Amino acid sequence: MLKEVTLVLATLLIAGPVTAFGCGNEANSCKIETGEYHIVLPENWEGGPAVVHLHGYGGTGAKVIGNKAFVEAFTARGYAFIAPTALPWLEDKPADWSVRDGWNTYPRSDVIFLREVLADVVLRANVDASRVLLTGFSRGGSMVWEVACLAPDLALGYAPASGGFWLPATEDCQAPVNLLHTHGFVDKVVPLEGRAIHSDEYDITITQADIWQGLAVWRRENDCPPNAADHKITDGLWRKSWICKVGSLEILLHNGGHGYPEGWSSQALDWFEGLEN
Prior knowledge:
Elements lengths: L1 H11 L17 E3 L2 E6 L7 E7 L6 H5 L2 H8 L4 E5 L2 E2 L6 E2 L13 H16 L1 E11 L1 H12 L6 E5 L16 E7 L10 E5 L4 E5 L2 H11 L8 E5 L2 E6 L5 E7 L9 H13 L1
Parallel strand pairs: 3-4, 3-7, 7-8, 8-9, 9-14
Antiparallel strand pairs: 1-2, 2-4, 5-6, 10-11, 12-13, 13-14
Helix pairs in contact: 1-4
């Protein structure tokens, strides 16, 4: 079946990054039972690895693939780029991911949704399920931490940015993972130390957990020493990595705020490809 799908795709390819099998562009999402996603394939795609990227609070997969430069940084290196869309956390509210934060109104399990997205792209686009990098920004980054914790087998590598666990504090996870976390040193939206956010409308407070506390969970899960084994400082980037007995763990700090450092996509892919060597 996968060979047949690949042959069909080969007849549809055009020069440059392309969307697949009649859906996936900005105007026409790919729909499955639990939701929808967008996808862009590299030129001359015949199957291979994929990046699944989770948008921030209130975003959509369509908006993500509308950022051509961001997407092409991945497709130019031979990766399918997949951008799922979250659901509104309540009717008429912004799209949000089902992160464990003490606010239990989310309409679906996004762990199940993401598994079904991957099953769909494996079938339709010949994506290699053993070579998946899950990334996400802000609230999407928090969902990456959640997936890594609750469903560590979903991806080979996890590269969240500007988002981590929320309270109640996560104490342990299901299994070790490969995780590269990126954060702005002066991020005020998701501070490294965490912060509380109060809703007057619902009279509830939810709290972003301390990123360092979250990394301590991963050090325990991956059986890493308490001190980082390697430190690098170059061009406004601070990088710490631990030599763990299982999995891998790194943090990349940059001197900006709530965003990515320049060249982040290349750094994330270099790290991911190092996992396979």
